[in-house]
Amino acid sequence: MRIIKAFLVLLAGVLMLSACGDRSSTNEKSTSSQKTEETVQKSDIPTLFIHGYGGTINSFGGMIQRMEKQTITKKEAIITVMPDGSLQTEGTLTDQKNNPSIQVLFSDNVNNEWNQTEWIYQVMKFLKEQGIEKVNVVGHSMGGVSSLRYLTTYGQPEDAPEIVKFVAIGSPFNDFVDTSAEQDLKNLTENGPAQESSRYTDYRAGINNLPKKLPILLIGGKLSEEAADDGTVPLSSALSIRSLLKSNGNPVSLEIFTGEKAQHSQLHENTDVDKKVANFLWKE
């Protein structure tokens, strides 16, 4: 009997310790979740998401939706730019501190970067008229190209909001020139591309217009460790602008993604890219 009683006491003690361990684990998970949520800096500064060549509402639709589920952002509006520069708007900016997102769509989604630059300016002027003083910009592919052209052309005009942060995803800043056979990435990012396209020389000519304190994140992809591109845009082109930006005084961050999910049209569907964009915009 004494042995049985001792065994029962020991068993009860083990069960109590086990229960305490479960509660401790639950508390740690809860605390970790709270810390993740608390690191997101919430403001009323809208972020413009601008698609690439041939892009549609689906281009950034998935990324914004995934971020909404994590309460990182709140999609509040869609602005569609018509070929004549007129705007069609859906939704309303609420001025709430919920990191509002705005999708910018081009009705003629295969037009050139010069017209897109003017269309971006029309969007900016409209937002300024609505009382918006600051925005972030995220561009995929040609959306990044045209956004940088806007910045190097107009800089910070008084009739447009200040751009606080800029993200370019898979953007061919040196057109489709691949310099990987002539220089490694260190040489490229420190000294610029060995061959310059006319697009790149345009940027160089207008670099002094770019606000010097504007933080910029450049994201590039390659299909494998051995690959030199994301299936469409050479990595050397996506990162080509780094040296020019640094010489202008801009803080520049680089991120390279590798594998199937780093394919050009998959970059904005890649959840790891989501995290990098969100961290850069709202957690730093």
TrEMBL record:
Residues 22-41 are annotated as: Disordered. InterPro entries: AB_hydrolase_fold, DUF915_hydro-like. Residues 23-34 have a biased composition (Polar residues). Pfam families: DUF915 (PF06028). SUPFAM superfamilies: alpha/beta-Hydrolases (SSF53474). Residues 1-21 form the signal peptide. Keywords: Lipoprotein, Signal. This is Lipoprotein. The lineage of its organism: Bacteria, Bacillati, Bacillota, Bacilli, Lactobacillales.
